[in-house]
Specification:
The protein is mainly alpha-helical. It has one domain. Helix 1 packs antiparallel against helix 2, helix 1 packs antiparallel against helix 6 and helix 2 packs antiparallel against helix 3. The radius of gyration is 26 Å and the shape is elongated. Belongs to the tetraspanin (TM4SF) family. It comes from Engystomops pustulosus. One of its GO terms (cellular component) is plasma membrane.
Length: 240
């Protein structure tokens, strides 16, 4: 085996291992984003906000296949397999670009929908229904109270009937808190809308950053593979 062919095979095997590791990393990112969004699905009625995460998982599966194909085609010196390798990388690069575009487009649509759904859920709060569970969860999880701040509760049916904010507004270390507004030091005063927007934007921004990084890697890999494919086709790679 010539030095050029050996170097090419070593590079391709290494690149394949990189794609297998990338598949695992993307799978983790995709699942993490979905879990984050699912926690607050009551506030996000449209499914399009899940599209970037779903595409990330699809790309992770494709990258796993690419990694296996790269290892096999490199070891067996298959020109045909290498051609498929290049084709799949081209597809996954295109998918990454589409994901970035979708993420940027839908990022600005999260906030208006979030505000509308939060207002609807807070107005339906009764302490025992499904909407109440979602509101209690977000207030306890994000350590917040109300939509804009704790005064947002003053216009709700719950406050008019009970003259208190929900117990989920109470700080975790306050065992005597009953939700009355005459003891503001015992409740969270910051609003939930801004905090939830920040959580969702961070999750989406992180996923887009990861996709961008892998898109750059895939572009470099595509260029390198084209060069190697042309060289190795002259140096003796054989069709299966």
């Amino acid at each position: 085996m010539g030095l050029g062919v050996f170097t090419s095979k070593t590079f391709l095997v290494f690149l394949s291992l990189v794609f297998l590791a990338a598949a695992a990393a993307l799978g983790y990112v995709g699942i993490s984003v979905i879990i984050t969004y699912k926690q607050y699905e009551s506030f996000l009625s449209n499914a399009y906000v899940m599209l970037p995460a779903i595409i990330i998982l699809a790309v992770a599966v494709l990258m796993f296949i690419i990694g296996l194909l790269g290892c096999i085609s490199s070891i067996q010196e298959s020109c045909c397999g290498l051609g498929c390798f290049i084709t799949l990388i081209s597809i996954i690069f295109a998918a990454g670009v589409v994901t970035l575009v979708l993420g940027l487009v839908y990022k600005d649509k999260i906030d208006p929908e979030l505000q509308k759904n939060m207002k609807r859920l807070f107005e339906k709060y009764s302490g025992g229904n499904l909407e109440s569970s979602a509101v209690d969860f977000i207030q306890e999880e994000l350590k917040c109270c109300g939509i804009q701040n704790y005064t947002s509760w003053e216009n709700t049916t719950w406050f008019m009937a009970n003259h208190t904010v929900p117990v989920s507004c109470c700080r975790k270390n306050e065992t005597t808190c009953d939700g009355k507004l005459d003891a503001l030091n015992k409740i969270y005063t910051e609003g939930c809308e801004v905090k939830l927007e920040n959580v969702l934007h961070r999750a989406l921004g992180f996923s887009l950053l990861v996709i961008l990084g892998f898109a750059v890697l895939e572009l470099l890999a595509l260029i390198s593979l084209c060069v190697i494919y042309r060289r190795n086709s002259r140096e003796g790679y054989q069709l299966l």
